[in-house]
Amino acid sequence: MAFDTPNGTRGARQPGRSRLERWGNRKMVERIRRKGTRRGDKLVLVTIGKRTGAERMTPVRWFPGEGDTKLIVASASGAPRNPAWYYNIAAHPDRVRIEFAGERIEVTPEQLHGADRDAAWRQVTTTASGFARYGRITDREIPVIRLTPRAS
Prior knowledge:
This is Deazaflavin-dependent oxidoreductase (Nitroreductase family). The protein is an alpha+beta fold. It has one domain: Pnp Oxidase, Chain A (Roll). The protein has four helices and six strands, in the order H-E-E-E-H-E-E-H-H-E. Helix 3 packs across helix 4. The longest helix is centred in the N-terminal third of the chain and has 17 residues. The two termini are 21 Å apart. 28% of the residues are buried.
């Protein structure tokens, strides 16, 4: 369950830094939490800030994993750095949950490595070709995280 993917040296601009992007993310979080999305492919990832200890909510696209697991991708749109939520998960893996369409689900995150990561990455890029582009514009390996619901 090691969250140890290093940052890269090149890539796109890190998303989510402008005031407009933060506002858009807040609005998307509200919508996903309330009624989901039209295609049902986004969820709200709730983490605890690595440095602040504050609850953080991030809208992310998800892909079906095996059974009732979900896969999320720490692409940061191909930026050289991993997204902040990746480090939040690494710091507090026992305090991660997802929310969508009125549901709140406590999950256990696991970063995939080796053949598991390669298979999941193929699934993601086959379903959403934009992620393959992100992989080409950055020199870091983009982490794929499996979220498994915890028993109540």
